[in-house]
Amino acid sequence: MKSHLHEQRFLRALHYLEDHYTDGIDLYRVADAAGLSPWHWHRLYRNITGATLHATVKEMRLHRAAWLIAYTDKPFAAIARECGYHNAQSFARSFRDAYGLSPQQYRTRPARAYPVRLETRAPLAVVMLAHPGDCQRLGDSFCQLDTLLRLRGVDTHNTRAFSIHPVIDPLHSEKHVAATVALEYAQPPLQAGHIAGGRYAVLHHCGPYADLDRVYEWFAQEWFTRAGLHIADDRPVILEYHESCDAIPAAERRVDICIPLAG
What is the pLDDT of residue 167? Predict the structure, then answer.
């Protein structure tokens, strides 16, 4: 009962962060959402996530900013304000520090091709959490999944992390985040699931997660057309993430995009 109460309090605080990370977040407001004292909340959050509240909010703001820079033509000053920065120069410095490029350089990067390999992947049993939103907010669900598993005693540093996407409209349909842990941890809101084995085309991407929408579209459309291959409709698209967000700079994050092959 006590463990369940901790989970509910932690999730309330995470949902508050997801809804208000562009506001003037402070420790007292988040602790209040969790129903805990600021001291207790700060200690619990740091112990469970290994990160500070400031670092988490900064990561969320810059990821949102990177997506807006890459996929919209909004002015950088407007993006800075939308993502919680009141000073455009401060935003530009933070963005360059995190992404290694200025906002202008990030927006105008030339399109590139990626190496792709074909491989047979083994099936995997996983514990999953549903994610109803767009891909750009997958990090929110990964944070919830990781938090719940850690509260249940799992060392998530030794697990593999995935997102599972329906092959029809994979960027916008309901999807799941998943980890390879014992199925005994699949208690609500987590559920047991599996990742189908079989033949996949695999693109290895190294760079910001905000790039993944664009990379996937190139892979599924241009590469498959040129290769003369077809996407299977009986298995989902799988993304495997090799680092956690707070462990490595945005430009060095590695993801395998695995699209199932027909035939």
Answer: 80
- Number of folded domains that form the chain: 3
pTM as predicted:
0.91
Q: Do residues 199 and 225 both lie within one domain?
A: yes
The reply to whether 194 and 240 lie within a common domain is yes
Q: Is the pLDDT of residue 93 over 90?
A: yes
Residues 214-236: tens digit of each pLDDT: 999 999 999 999 999 999 999 99
- 124-131 sheet: strands from edge to edge: 116-121, 198-206, 254-260, 237-241, 161-165, 175-179, 124-131, 191-195
Structural domain including 224 reads 116-260
Overall average pLDDT of the 134-161 stretch: 90
Do 177 and 105 share a domain, yes or no? no
Q: Give the CA dihedral 178, 182, 188, 190, nearest 10 degrees.
A: 0
CB 112 within 8 A of CB 97: no
Strand partners, 198: 121
Are 215 and 245 contained in the same domain?
A: yes
How many other C-beta atoms are found inside a 10 Å radius of the C-beta of residue 222? Answer: 12
